[in-house]
Write a structure and sequence with these properties.
Elements: H1 6-10, H2 18-32, H3 42-56, H4 59-67, H5 81-87, H6 99-104, E1 125-131, H7 133-138, E2 140-148, E3 151-159, E4 168-171, E5 187-193, E6 200-202, E7 205-212, H8 214-219, E8 221-225, E9 232-236, E10 245-248, E11 260-266, H9 274-286
Parallel strand pairs: 1-5, 7-11
Antiparallel strand pairs: 2-3, 4-5, 6-7, 8-9, 10-11
Helix pairs in contact: 2-3
Amino acid sequence: MKYKDYYAALGVAKDADLEQIKKAYRKLARTYHPDVSKAPDAEARFKEAAEAYATLKNPEKRAAYDELGQPPIGEEFVPPSQWRHEHAPEGQSFEDIDLADLLAAMGRGRHGAPHVQQPFKGQDYENTVQISLEDARKGAALSLKLADTAGERTLEVTIPPGVREGQKLRLRGKGGKGHNGGADGDIYLHIKLAPHPVFRPDRHDLYFDLALTPSEAALGAELQVPSLDGPVLLTVPPGMRSGRKLRLRGRGLLPDHSDLYAIVHIDVPTTLTERERELYQELARVSTFNPRATAPKEKTP
């Protein structure tokens, strides 16, 4: 078994708190993710950061890791006998096991357990996947390249309909291999939604900006507007004001259980034809509407 410096892998001090460790891992994961980085050592750096984070985020594993001291990095070593007695499965061979897998088994088989190699679960991993809003609403089948301590591999993943930003999906049994008959670990996928040119997500709801002409706002209209399922008909009631929201039920990210909102703003033409100018001037002469009539007035001294 070879020693690895997990603190150096994340670029944090040995007294770093959990928030500092999380922040360092997230930064490295974003920088060296194989789907993003073109650096030749990206895969190795990504795996190294994931392995370090898996240990240092867990107080018990971190304490056990710290008890190992600091053997020469990259050289074969065997944990001290007291450490093995306290933390390692009884009868564990240290020649064919990775440090991360040993720490994953920490605490099992101690205190008088039979002198046998006990099963322990493989390591869990975390990853981030970015998907489009269309795939978030409808679901998708993706081929993901994942890098972990076992190397790079391709995994077929089914994204269910209705996922949202920040949601975590568990891929049971897709993580590190179990030892001595133990179950394989899991992969946790963190969902990130790609920016969209039209829609803005808010949890499962979606929002977009709807520009209306003055006549459409005043008289009402029936308009075709975009949705993730294609154009849909929206009825604009008369007397619509800027900033109002119009709801299209069931058109959000969670089908039939979330909504699409059109945020109204009223636009005016920058240039007018002679006829348009005449009509606007006529409207100005005959209209009694004054939007400032109800505005609060300053008190005179």
